[in-house]
Amino acid sequence: MPIPETLSHIHLQGRTRGVGGRLLPRALILLIVASVCVSLALPTGFAGWDDLHYLQAAQRWIAEGAHVPANHWATRLPYVLTIAASLRLFGLSVFALTVPNTILFALTLLLV
Predict the structure, then answer these.
(1) What does the alpha-carbon distance between residue 10 and residue 22 come to, in Å, rounded to a whole number?
(2) Does the reported pTM lie above 0.70?
Protein backbone atom coordinates (compact mmCIF):
# COMPACT_ATOMS: atom_id res chain seq x y z
CA MET A 1 0.00 0.00 0.00
CA PRO A 2 1.55 3.37 -0.97
CA ILE A 3 2.12 5.97 1.73
CA PRO A 4 0.01 9.10 1.19
CA GLU A 5 2.06 12.11 0.15
CA THR A 6 0.65 14.27 2.93
CA LEU A 7 2.22 12.10 5.62
CA SER A 8 5.84 12.41 4.63
CA HIS A 9 6.27 15.16 2.04
CA ILE A 10 4.42 17.87 0.24
CA HIS A 11 4.99 17.91 -3.51
CA LEU A 12 4.78 21.33 -5.10
CA GLN A 13 5.89 22.09 -8.65
CA GLY A 14 7.84 18.85 -8.93
CA ARG A 15 9.97 19.54 -5.83
CA THR A 16 9.84 17.67 -2.55
CA ARG A 17 9.61 19.70 0.61
CA GLY A 18 9.69 18.00 3.97
CA VAL A 19 9.29 19.47 7.40
CA GLY A 20 12.85 20.80 7.31
CA GLY A 21 12.30 22.43 3.91
CA ARG A 22 11.49 26.01 3.09
CA LEU A 23 7.84 25.90 4.18
CA LEU A 24 8.62 26.34 7.88
CA PRO A 25 10.76 29.49 7.48
CA ARG A 26 8.11 31.01 5.20
CA ALA A 27 5.40 30.25 7.73
CA LEU A 28 7.54 31.75 10.48
CA ILE A 29 8.13 34.93 8.48
CA LEU A 30 4.42 35.19 7.69
CA LEU A 31 3.58 34.71 11.37
CA ILE A 32 6.01 37.41 12.46
CA VAL A 33 4.74 39.86 9.83
CA ALA A 34 1.15 39.13 10.87
CA SER A 35 1.93 39.66 14.55
CA VAL A 36 3.65 42.99 13.83
CA CYS A 37 0.66 44.11 11.74
CA VAL A 38 -1.78 43.14 14.48
CA SER A 39 0.18 44.91 17.20
CA LEU A 40 0.49 48.05 15.07
CA ALA A 41 -3.14 48.01 13.93
CA LEU A 42 -4.52 47.38 17.42
CA PRO A 43 -2.10 49.22 19.69
CA THR A 44 -2.70 49.10 23.39
CA GLY A 45 0.45 50.96 24.28
CA PHE A 46 2.04 51.33 27.66
CA ALA A 47 -0.90 52.87 29.46
CA GLY A 48 -1.41 50.68 32.52
CA TRP A 49 0.02 51.07 36.00
CA ASP A 50 2.11 47.90 35.68
CA ASP A 51 3.59 49.09 32.41
CA LEU A 52 5.00 52.19 34.09
CA HIS A 53 6.75 50.02 36.69
CA TYR A 54 8.22 47.74 34.00
CA LEU A 55 9.51 50.81 32.14
CA GLN A 56 11.07 52.21 35.31
CA ALA A 57 12.70 48.86 36.10
CA ALA A 58 14.12 48.64 32.56
CA GLN A 59 15.46 52.18 32.78
CA ARG A 60 17.12 51.33 36.10
CA TRP A 61 18.81 48.30 34.49
CA ILE A 62 20.15 50.56 31.76
CA ALA A 63 21.36 53.22 34.20
CA GLU A 64 22.75 51.02 36.99
CA GLY A 65 23.37 47.62 35.43
CA ALA A 66 22.80 44.53 37.56
CA HIS A 67 21.20 45.36 40.89
CA VAL A 68 18.83 44.03 43.52
CA PRO A 69 15.26 44.58 42.28
CA ALA A 70 13.29 47.21 44.19
CA ASN A 71 9.84 45.64 43.80
CA HIS A 72 8.09 42.63 42.33
CA TRP A 73 7.78 44.25 38.89
CA ALA A 74 11.55 44.55 38.65
CA THR A 75 12.01 40.86 39.51
CA ARG A 76 10.33 39.74 36.29
CA LEU A 77 13.69 39.74 34.57
CA PRO A 78 12.85 38.06 31.25
CA TYR A 79 10.29 40.78 30.50
CA VAL A 80 12.17 43.70 32.08
CA LEU A 81 15.44 42.82 30.34
CA THR A 82 13.76 42.53 26.93
CA ILE A 83 12.32 46.01 27.46
CA ALA A 84 15.75 47.28 28.55
CA ALA A 85 17.40 45.77 25.46
CA SER A 86 14.77 47.34 23.21
CA LEU A 87 15.26 50.73 24.87
CA ARG A 88 19.03 50.46 24.34
CA LEU A 89 18.56 49.57 20.66
CA PHE A 90 15.80 52.00 19.71
CA GLY A 91 15.86 54.70 22.38
CA LEU A 92 12.93 55.78 24.51
CA SER A 93 9.91 55.62 22.21
CA VAL A 94 6.56 53.92 21.88
CA PHE A 95 8.05 51.71 19.16
CA ALA A 96 10.82 50.52 21.50
CA LEU A 97 8.24 49.61 24.12
CA THR A 98 6.13 47.74 21.55
CA VAL A 99 8.95 45.58 20.15
CA PRO A 100 9.29 43.15 23.12
CA ASN A 101 5.53 42.63 23.25
CA THR A 102 5.43 41.95 19.52
CA ILE A 103 8.26 39.42 19.75
CA LEU A 104 6.67 37.66 22.72
CA PHE A 105 3.31 37.66 20.90
CA ALA A 106 4.91 36.00 17.86
CA LEU A 107 6.60 33.39 20.08
CA THR A 108 3.28 32.68 21.77
CA LEU A 109 1.66 32.14 18.37
CA LEU A 110 4.44 29.74 17.45
CA LEU A 111 3.93 27.70 20.61
CA VAL A 112 0.17 27.46 20.18
Answers:
(1) 11
(2) no
